[in-house]
Fold this protein.
Amino acid sequence: MALRPLFLLLLSFSPSHAGLQTYFATCVKGMEPVLASELRSGLVDAQDVEEGHLGVHFRGSHRAGGQAVLWLRSAIRVMEQLSYGEGLFQPEDLYDFTRESVRWTDLLARKDQTLSVSAICGAARAVESGRARPGDWVCAECGGLVFASRTECFACGAPTPAAAESGLTHSHFSALTVKNAVCDAMRDACGWRPSVDTADADLPLFLYLHRGQATLYRVCSGSASMHKRGYRAGAIHAAALRETTAAGLLLHAGYRPEEQVLCDPMAGSGTFAIEAALIATNTAPGLLRAQPPIASPGWAEGGQADWEELVQEARAALRPCAPLPILANDLHGGALELARRGAEAAGVSSSIHFTEGGVAAFVPRDSPDLVVSNPPWDLRLESGSEAWQELGSFLKRSCGGSTAWLLSGNKDLTRHLRMRKSESLRLENAGVSLVWLKYDVLRPKSDGGVSSSAAAIAPVEDALPAQRDTERPGHRVVGTVEEAEPLQDKGLQEVAVEAGMTAGDEVQEVFDGAELEQGMREEIDAAMLEQATRESEVERLTVAELKDELQLRGLTDSGVKSQLLERLEEDDSRIALLEANRVESASTSVKMADGTGLPEDDLEALFSSLYD
C-alpha cells in the first residue's frame, strides 16, 4: 500500500512577525494597484503590502484587519489566513490538514454559532478561464496540470492520481471535505457539531487549492460581499455599477473633494455620485454595511472591544457635507429616484445636486473639474452612439479645462466622442472586460469664438482715446507698434513689419481684413481638430480597411499594420500641411494689402494709375 504524500504545514506567522496575521483583500481584476494604494494610505495599519492576482496581500494585527473591513472602498472581501499547507493531493490529506492546522474551539465557542465553507480549485479556475479543458488533472507528484487525454504527467511521468477521480479537484467536494473536518473536530473537542448557514454564517471560511497547495482563510468581512454597502434596497438599476468598482475608479481618477467639483452627466442610479459623496464626507463604507448594533467579525477574545473602538473612531471622523458640489444628472426619472433613495439611505443626500434631463441640454450649475460617467454601452446600447456623441458635445461645451474619466465596455462607441484619450485602465467586472478612459478636455475659445490673440487686442482698443483725426475713412487705430509687441499677437506684428512701420507708427486695421483674418484662424483651428480626430479614427481601422484606404490613394499597401498606419498618417499630415499653407497664404495676402493703410477703392485706383 503506497504511503500518502506527506503535507508540509506552514504557519501563517513567523517569529519575526509575532502577533501579526496575514491577510488577503480581494478585488476585481485590474483594481489591484488601487487597492494596494488604499492599504498604504494610512487608514489601515498594514505592513508588507504586496499586489497579487485578484487581490492584495498584507500583514497586520487584528486591529488592522478591522480597519480594512471598515475603510477599504475597492475591496470585495477581507480574509485572514488561518493556515497554509503543501502536498495535499488526496481528500484524506485535505481532511487531516483542516483538522490539525487550526484550533477550531477558539473560533466556534458557542453552540449557536454557524459555519460556511466555499472553495476554489486552481484546476477549475483554469478551466473557467480557458487555460485548461474539462477533465484535465493535477499531477500528485509535481503539481503540474495535465491534459485529460494523457494517462501520465508530461513532466515527471507519474500516472493519473486517484484524486482526479475522487473529486479533490472539484470545488464543491473540497468545500464539503473542509466542512466535515471542522465539524468532526468540534464534535471530538466539545461534543457538538456546528450548524451550516451559507447565507450569513458566524464563521465563513474560504479555501484555495491548487497543485497540492491549500490556503485556508477566515472571511473577516462576513459572508456578504463588501460591495453591498447597504444603501441599495429593493429594485436595482439594470446597468448599475458595483459600489466597490465605482469607488475604486474614483480613487484611480484622483478625486480630491476639497479641490474638485465632480459631475456625472449620465448618473443612472447614482453609484458614482454616492460613492464620491462617501469619500467627500469621509464615511467609512463599513459603517453602512454594519448597521447598529454592530457585531464583531468573529475576532478572538478582546476583539469585540477593539472593533467597537474602531467604529467610534470612524464615526468621529465623519464630515457633515462634501466640501464642494457633487452634480448628478440623468435623462430617466426612475433611475434618478433610485439614486435619490440611495443617497438618502447612505446619509449623503445633502452633498449631491440631482437634475433630470438629457445630457445634450444639461448645463451644470457649477463648472466641473472632474467628470466621471458610465455611459450606455451594453444593456443600454439601443441609443449608445447618440449618447456618446451628446456626451462629447457636452464635455467640449460645458467642461473646458476639466478631466473626464469614462467607463466603456465597447470600444466602437468611444470614437463617437471625437476625443483622444490620454490614459486608460483595463479591468474586469462581472466577467465583462471594461476600460476606464481618461480625456483631458481643452478649454473652448473666448466668448464669440474669438481666438486668444484677437481677444487680447480688445483691451488695448478700449484703453485708447477716441478716434483720431489722422485716421483714414474705413480704418481704426488699434495701437502702436510698441503697444502691439507686449500682446505677442503675431498677426498684428506681421502687419506692422510688412507695412514697413517703425516704433511709434500707428498700427491700423481694416475692418473687413480683420474679420477675414479671424475667419482664417478659425479655419486653421478646425483643420487641426479634424486632423486629430482623423488620426484617432485611423488607429481603429483593421488591416484590410487600411489597405483599401491606401489603394484608393494610390499608395503602397504592403507591410504590417504599424507600417500601414504610419504610411496613412504621413499622407494625412501632408494633406493637412498643404491645406494649412493654402489658408496661411490667403491670410498673408490680406495682411499685406491692409498694411498699406489704403482702403480698397484707393488701392484699386493706385494700381490703375501705374498702368495708365
DSSP finds 20 helices and 20 strands in the chain. The domain at 8-219 is CATH 3.30.2130.30 (VC0802-like). The chain has a mean pLDDT of 75.
